[in-house]
Amino acid sequence: MIYQSHDIPVQGGQLHVGVWGNRGPILLCSHGLSANHKSYQGLARELDGEFTLIAVDHRGRGKSCNITGPWGMKAHADDLAATLDFLKIDAVPLLMGHSMGAFISAVTHHHYGDRIGKLLFIDGGLPLADELPPGITPEQLVTAVVGPSMDRLDKLFASEDEFLQFWKHHPALGECWSADLEEYLLYELSGSAPELRSCVNKAAILGDTESQLMSDDIPNALAKLSVPVTFLQAPRGIMNEAPLYSSERLQDMQKRLPQMKVEVIDDVNHYSILLGEKGAAAIADIVRKLV
Predict the structure, then answer these.
(1) Range 64-76 average pLDDT
(2) Could you give the residue ranges of the DSSP H alpha helices within the chain?
(3) Among 135, 123, 59, which residue's Cα sits nearest to residue 96?
(4) What is the spatial distance between Cα 227 and Cα 47, in angstroms, rounded to a whole number?
């Protein structure tokens, strides 16, 4: 599988970008809240030779962790546009995003609509509710939504194996454990044993959560969507239990977004829908139909 990477100058530092493939239609990919571009490696493997996949480490994550800001959905949208400029790509037929990446995709279309053909939301991109509890802070919100995976940002790990053991206890990842998943997880480590830590910038997480769930960025972007949208629902959620989006919520959102089609990916959760082989294969089939 052909892979290359680039570092692109953007506001606040250098944006790291990974590219799988060198022929076929170009797909632009946006990852989740505390993830990195390697989350798309399994999908790239499924589509090897058919498409070119471009995925960034969003500012504050992966090898883009040293970017100093700003944070928020608009900053990420600007980074995706800068990526296309750097690679001399006028437009892409499909922009896909997983979890927070789907919200970024909506805002990118809002500001750079002439460069985006269709949108693929992978269990994200839609408000979880019309109103949030009053007085909640971004840190309380991200802890409530994402759960224990955020604990790693404040921990030191003595070895790579200890870091992997931390994740093996997560209820949503056991079903999709693989070499690709281990590579994706280890990619975020910085430092050296016995003082390894996640490189994810907590300020970026909190700033993006506020932009994603507590500002007008997403309502304004969704109100102006003018391209076909496919939403992929995971029937199990972040903790491998109730779905992140209920069927009732999706039905309500479809009334507001008539151009949106909802498809359920069977027997996956919020993580394994992209990180697992079953989920990646299902997404690959959908991409082939959309592009």
Answers:
(1) 97
(2) 41-46, 73-86, 100-112, 138-146, 160-168, 179-186, 202-213, 217-223, 247-256, 272-275, 277-290
(3) 123
(4) 24
How far, in Å, CA of 14 to CA of 59, rounded? 8
Distance CA 195, CA 269 (A): 32
In this prediction, residue 145 carries a pLDDT of: 72
Residue 178 structure tokens: 């693989």
* Contact call for residues 190 and 198 (beta carbons, < 8 A): yes
Q: Which two tokens stand for residue 92?
A: 């892409």
- State the amino acid at position 279 in one-letter form: G
Q: Nearest 5 degrees, angle CA 226-CA 105-CA 127?
A: 85
Task: Name the one residue in this structure whose structure tokens are 């609509």.
Answer: 113
CA pair distance 78, 89, nearest whole angstrom: 14
**Using CA atoms, how far apart are residues 289 and 132, in angstroms rounded to an integer?**
36
Residue labelled with tokens 């990118």: 108
Overall pTM surpassing 0.90 (yes/no): yes
What single DSSP character describes residue 157?
A: B
Tokens 């989350």 -> residue:
39
Instruction: Indicate whether 147 pLDDT > 70.
Output: no
> Exposed, middle or buried, 67 (CB in 10 Å: 0-12/13-18/19+)?
buried
